[in-house]
Amino acid sequence: MPTSTPGQYTTYIPSHASSGNLVTDFSRNPDSFALSEWAQYIPVDKNEGRYVQMTVEQAGRILDTTGGDFYWPDEGEAPTGYGNLETFSWQSYVTKRYAFPFRMGELAAEQASWDVLAHHARYAAQRCMTWRTQTAITAATTSGSYAAAHTSAVSSITGVTGKWDVSTTARKDIKRSLDHASETVLKATLGAVKPEDLMVVMSPGCAKKIALSQEIVDHIKGSPSAEKELTKTLSRANRFGLPENLYGYKVVIEDSVKVTSKKGATKATSYVLPDTTPFVCSRVGGLEGIEGAPSFSTISIFLKEEMTVESKHDRDNRRHLGRVVDDFASIGVAFISGFLFTAATD
Question: Rounded to an integer, what distance in angstroms lies between the CA atom of residue 80 and that of residue 297?
Answer without folding.
Answer: 34
